[in-house]
Amino acid sequence: MSRMGIWFFLSVKRWLRHKGFAAVLLAMPVVLWGIQRMEPEETEKIRIGTASEDKGLGEEIAESLSQADTGGMFEFVLYQDEEGLKQAVASGKVECAYLFPENLEQKLREGESRRSITVYTAPSTVLEPLAGEVVFSALAARYNGIILQDYIEARAGEMDSGKKESVPDKEEVLFWYHTYLENGSTFRFEYQVLEGEEIPVPARNIGGENDTLARKQIFPVRGLIGVFVFLSAFFSAYNLKEDEKKGLFFPLPFYERLLCKGAALAAPVFLAVCAGLISLFVAGDFQGIWLETGALAACGFFSVLYGAAAGLAVPKAEVLAMMIPALALGLLLVCPVFIDAGKWFDFIGSLQRILPPAWYLKIF
């Protein structure tokens, strides 16, 4: 075994005997596994009441809201009359309630629909504006079809028999309207709950059709691993400067001195990479041995280069040690560990381009 290999092996043994560093290496897989296995408390949906005074458009909207599985924070409950709505709000069974008036469709056609939908709210509620967005989006989805149908009929009536233009087929147009309305491809938004849950995200398959892809959100776990690997290089750079002060590398020839310093610098980073791979495996997000090993090894390699550069740029080991806490906080803020601030601030996005943990996170 070469002198550099021996030095690397002895450095690994030395860091494993370092009680603080060894404790972090052992605790990281256990802690991250525990975080991933912590199930978020199930939140009860907020109940919203709906009712209609007639059997027309208002009843259709109320029934569609009560039957729809929005998958969000609201659950709509259908009541038979206005009195039932009032009692539900007064007793706290629902947060607020919406009463659709008689002849709602006629009022919409005549432009007299302002303030026609009655809203009952509890004095303490602050969620009525949010629920209102859902209610009026359901109203628009229903009434827009009526507008489209009226447009087709009006255009058909204006067509002269001598014109070559053809009238759109009413059934076909309405079919495509409802198809695009119900498949979620029109006027939609998505939100993600970063709780370690499996959430639906849109994807495109080869045929170009929308599909649903389950993606497990463990971004904080992967981000913490990347930051730890990067910081381990700076811990190693601090330790290397202390060894240089003691004259540990002085007996070695110049070229071997550089190689052995590199081996000593890389030893804790190697251990951090190994601990990170184990953590990803036990956390349930190990996406293949070659991808994970290659990505984390690349992060470790560039982290070693950054640590070496910091060791050359900072003259004293004490100053380097004082920089590490600030560096850790900065990495958590700049790198997309918990939130990707680079989407809103260009200068943070620029910083992400030069940080190995951010590169590593962007791979996944």
Give an overview in words:
This protein is elongated. It is an alpha/beta fold and 364 residues long. 61% of the residues lie in helices and 10% in strands. The chain contains 13 helices and six strands. Mean pLDDT is 80; it is low at 189-219. The strands form two sheets. A four-stranded mixed beta sheet has the order 2-1-3-4, with helices on both faces. The chain has a two-stranded antiparallel ribbon with strand order 5-6. The protein has helices spanning 3-17, 19-37, 57-67, 82-91, 104-110, 128-158, 170-182, 219-246, 254-283, 289-313, 317-334, 346-352, 356-363; strands at residues 46-52, 74-78, 96-100, 118-121, 198-204, 210-216. Helix 2 packs parallel to helix 9 (254-283).
Structural class: alpha/beta
Order of helices and strands: HHEHEHEHEHHEEHHHHHH
What is the strand arrangement across the widest sheet? 2-1-3-4
Strand content: 5-15%
Q: State the shape.
A: elongated
| Individual helix count | 13
